Amino acid sequence: MTIPTESYEDIFKNYSDALLWMEKIGVKFSSGRTQHYKKLISHWKDHYKVATKKEGNIIFPDFVSSIFEIHNFIDIYKAFQNTPNNQLVHIVEKLQKGINGPINSAEESPKSTAARNFLFEASFAARAHRPANNVLAILDAVSDTGIKIDNKKLWVECKRITTVGKIEDNVKKACKQLESTLKNKSGSGHRGIVAIEVTKLFHSGDQILVSENDTQLKNSIDKMMDNFIYKYSEIWQKLFDLSNNKIIGLVIQFAFMATSESRSLLVHTSQ
Fold first, then answer.
1. What is the DSSP letter of 246?
2. Does 3 reside within a domain?
3. Rounded CA separation 209/231 (Å)
4. Is the separation of the CB atoms in 27 and 99 below 8 Å?
């Protein structure tokens, strides 16, 4: 895990560039959450330096949530900005759905999770896409997304999990979906993996993880991941034992807004 050191001004520029790119590739915007984030960060990126304590108490929680939310859009933009538009049809579809939903993730209900679910699929593809290393996202995958490494293909099913009680159901569903995909793929070059996003099992999206310095912050995040795997790995391991042996593993992702007090900067950290 690396800890970013971007200023709020840099984050705002990257997000503005991401929105312009999204519009260019065909995403249609309304006055939804993406514009709310832009307006709030545009004001607060400078104003936080001179804001009164009262203003900070009112605005800061929404600012934290906004900074937390925009990083998926920035990651997708940075990964695919040089990809020809005609190869981005499925990414555009996911982004078009992903810009909807409640402004703050803390306001999600079981009926309003779809937008961020699609955004997770697109952001996972973005994080995997490393053309310089010959690792490519499969942008027309029959599964949620896929990864091509040399002549091998990994088919990926993505699940955002919002309660501990849903871990088993979601992983089981992903395994069944992968088995259906793999059944139609011949040859030894096909494998499946499950990707789960579990941020909401740790926090609702508007909390800050505070550490004294970067080393302590890294150690805290690593410990959270280790504890999560230790506590729940038996659930998915049991399911993998009963599934197609071409399903080779599970990727876990979560994210936090955090501050390293030695730098006094709010940062987005993910694992």
1. T
2. no
3. 21
4. yes
AA letter at 232? Y
Contact 76, 19 (CB under 8 A): no
Biggest CA–CA distance in the chain, Å, is 64
Map tokens 């049809």 to a residue.
89
| CA nearest neighbour of 174 among 97, 236, 84, 87 | 236
Task: Using alpha carbons, list the distances in angstroms from residue 172 to 115, 116, 163, 176, 263.
Answer: 22, 20, 15, 6, 42
**Total domain count, the chain:** 1
Of the candidates 175, 199, 159, 196, which has an alpha carbon nearest to the alpha carbon of residue 69?
A: 199
What predicted TM-score, i.e. pTM, was given to this entire model? 0.91
Domain annotation covers residue 111: yes
Residue 173: which domain range?
A: 8-270
Q: Which residues contact 180 (CB under 8 A, 6 or more apart)?
A: none
User: Is residue 2 a part of any domain in this protein?
Assistant: no
pLDDT, tens digit only, all 271 positions of the chain = 555 667 888 999 999 999 999 999 999 998 789 999 999 888 877 766 656 656 656 666 777 788 888 999 999 999 999 999 999 999 999 999 999 999 988 888 888 999 999 999 999 999 999 999 999 999 999 999 999 999 899 999 999 999 999 999 999 999 999 999 999 998 889 999 999 999 999 876 666 777 888 888 888 888 999 999 999 999 999 999 999 999 999 999 998 877 767 666 677 777 7
Tell me how far apart the alpha carbons of residues 121 and 195 are, in angstroms, rounded to a whole number: 9
Closest CA to 232 of 163, 173, 178: 163
